[in-house]
Design a protein that fits this description.
Glycolipid transfer protein, GLTP; binds ligand 1PW; mainly alpha; 207 residues; 71% helix; 11 helices
């Protein structure tokens, strides 16, 4: 907690948050979801200033969602989708600040993260290649050319695999790899439930 308050990142916090996300009824709780994202943002920020344009967007989206949660008392992703859809799909599509379209952006980014962490865990030392491949397989399709270009440029500046495992702050490299093995399925579970929910409500292409 003290380390978190001081801004240090530990992958353990993110793991704990995503683990707390999914209820027995397979609902995704927003408080741990956003707190997992806060942890990921600290991680991004510890990677240096080249990542600041990426973390800035994530901060803006998490902050907007935290505001929605407080005002509307959304507890789960499911209740947020239900309440926002109550005014009809057309009204929802017309809102540039809806919780749904904002979560959708984070959701796509979560897929990127999942793929990238899988790559890190695999032992492949080429972090920039892993990150670019993960990006091309997920977020890239949703970004305009200029964002793709800037993102790929930032990936060239990624630290080495060893440095990454160290920045995760969970102990020696073997432990960091073990922690990744534990964390990835939780992230995958949250991703899968969200994907299914958005697909069912035809929200996967919200502008
Ligand atoms: C090293 C692994 C890092 C994984 C963390 C993922 C953070 C993802 C943030 C990517 C943001 C790239 C720059 C911002 C682009 C926005 O235009 C875009 N946002 C996202 C999250 O894709 C779309 O948001 P918009 O413009 O429709 O509000």
């Amino acid at each position: 907690m003290a380390a978190a308050a001081a801004g240090a990142f530990s992958l353990r916090e993110v793991l704990d948050a995503f683990r707390r996300c999914v209820t027995e009824q397979r609902e995704v709780l927003l408080e741990p979801y956003l707190s997992g994202w806060r942890g990921l943002i600290r991680f991004l920020q510890s990677l240096g200033t080249v990542f600041s344009f990426i973390s800035k967007d994530a901060v803006a989206k998490v902050t907007l969602l935290e505001g929605h949660c407080q005002r509307q008392r959304f507890v789960s992703l499911q209740s947020m989708v239900e309440q926002e859809l109550a005014a009809g799909p057309a009204a929802l599509r017309a809102r540039p600040d809806s919780g749904c379209r904002t979560v959708l952006r984070l959701h796509r980014a979560l897929r990127w993260l999942q793929l990238f962490l899988e790559g890190l865990r695999s032992g492949d030392p080429r972090t920039s290649v892993l990150c670019t491949d993960a990006y091309d397989a997920s977020l890239a399709a949703h970004h305009p050319w200029v964002v793709r270009k800037a993102a790929r440029l930032a990936f060239c500046a990624l630290p080495s695999r060893e440095a990454f495992l160290e920045v995760m702050n969970v102990g020696p490299p073997e432990e960091a790899v073990a922690m990744l093995g534990e964390a990835i399925p939780y992230i995958g579970d949250v991703y899968g439930i969200t994907q299914e929910l958005f697909e069912r409500h035809k929200l996967l292409d919200l502008p």
